[in-house]
Amino acid sequence: DSLEWGVGGGLATQGRGVADTGQAECEVADVEPGEDVGRTEVVTDRREDSWGETSWEGERPGTPPLVQEMQEEESMEWESLDREEVLKETHRVRALLSEAMEVEETEMEEEEKDKEEKVQDMVGKKALVVVDTNVFISSLGIVSHLRDDMTVMVVIPWMVVQELDNLKTSTSRDTAVRARAAVRWVNTCLQTQHRGVTMQTVEQNRRAANMFESKNADDRILACCLMLKEEGNKVTLLTNDMNLANKGMINQVKCGDAENIVSVLSDSEEVRVEQQEEEGPDEKKICSELIMQGENTTRDLLEVVLKKEFLLAYGEKLWEKIVSIKPKPSRPHWSLNNLFTMFSKHHIAVFGVAFPRNGHELKLRLQTVKDKLRTRVWRVKEVKVVLAEMAGLFEVIKERDNYEGIVDICNDKLADISSQLDSYETVAAGNKKKKILVEDVNDGQESVQELFQNVWEIIACFTRGFANSMSVSNSLSHIEPDIKFQSLADATRNLPTFFSTVSTLQEAMLQVVATNGKGQLMEFYNLLTQFRANLELDQSYWPTFEQPVALTQLEMFMTKEQNQVVVRGGLDQISDFRQILIRCISGGDGQMM
Description:
Elements: H1 18-21, E1 26-28, E2 43-45, H2 65-76, H3 83-100, H4 110-115, H5 119-123, E3 127-131, H6 133-138, H7 140-147, E4 152-156, H8 158-167, H9 173-192, E5 197-199, H10 202-211, H11 217-230, E6 235-238, H12 242-250, E7 254-256, H13 261-269, H14 283-314, H15 319-322, H16 336-345, H17 347-354, H18 360-372, H19 380-400, H20 406-429, H21 441-469, H22 488-514, H23 521-529, H24 531-534, H25 551-559, H26 564-586
Parallel strand pairs: 3-4, 3-6, 4-5, 6-7
Antiparallel strand pairs: 1-2
């Protein structure tokens, strides 16, 4: 037996092809908060009623907090909310936080200034939208809409993060549930390193408060906007609080609320939040995507170079203590801007010693690439220049070492990006609407299908492993490898993170399928292509997926009419996997409780 991506479901459709039964339908049943998930059919398949016939012996354990919270959040998405109640609760929490604030008037150390990156450097020249807490509570959907627009960067002030944390325990159930949903949304953006969201750090918050003498939470959010304006950015404050909006407009900060923010941005910055026309993606969108791929490839190579050179210079025990920016526990360990900073800061002590000609050419190449990436609007001509500079940087690095073949791999990825750009340019030349052709259509579609198959096999194997370890019945086929955890405690420890990763991927895919490829496609693309990198479980059985998949290839695959049956079949499968994991969290035979 083997799992075939997009054919049948893990539970309700086992052994049956979707093509034989027509278009599959995924239905989310109404679940009352606190209702026992073991007795409730959360996801049903209209094609077969076998799920409801399952019998349970003995009393089922209660719904665990994580599952109950997610059920409450899903049910609240369709309910209207009193905006005045949200503002009242937000003001209450804001007043409590303001009482506890003590603005430190100390100047920053020079070393801290070196580490601090301007938001302008991190986000380029996108339109910055600073989002207030009340909008996260009342209109999380519009925040997601802005996040997924490639010309907008959502900025979350430090004060908003604190207020959301406090609102999770609000006496208003509606506000508390929506606050938890917002906190989970922020966490997902951080985990996936979404390019449409940036966070104000505690140090940036303190520096802005000192500069603009902000004594309360309202003024600190306004100070965040003013600091971004000082750095040369075009800033819009998104808030439903009329008093805060008045303060912003008095200080020449453009403001909008959840109902008019799209028109405010469109009128002032000519920002397009509407979906691309059916004719296909435009030049700016394609070029931005290819630049993103180039940045990721450069980041991956520089990470390898930095780590190896530090290990050679200081040894296994000391290198992490000496490097100026500590690595994250999982890849990517650093952002590209952080890597540029460290290569500059440690040039004399490390890279100038290791590289030929005192590392002079390396330093010049790094600075050139960094400068070129600050371009505001990407066109084909600018992308070609940047790719050429990246290729020159890679060659300088290869003069020093091939780093166990990593330089050659990154050069191949860069060549693939250039090929995609050439294909687009060829097609766009005679087409005013500039339709995209990334590469040969059949080849691109096969790569997407292989990526889905690879990820779905991994999810199926680990789901079966968790279920078997916790004695949770399931009808998943036996798929190699047969995952066995060292102990029940080992499975219990790894289950929450795995469930969160799978659940986030399933929810993003559901949005894409429901909107025929128009909703949260960028988020789904990032989650799918980075799934293995983000999964903290042993995947050595499966070979590394080397064939890169572009966003446009995934979009083409998800929206093609002839692929709809297999796409919905794949959604059925991952929904089934998620239900098995929920039963594992619920306790199976009671071990988890």
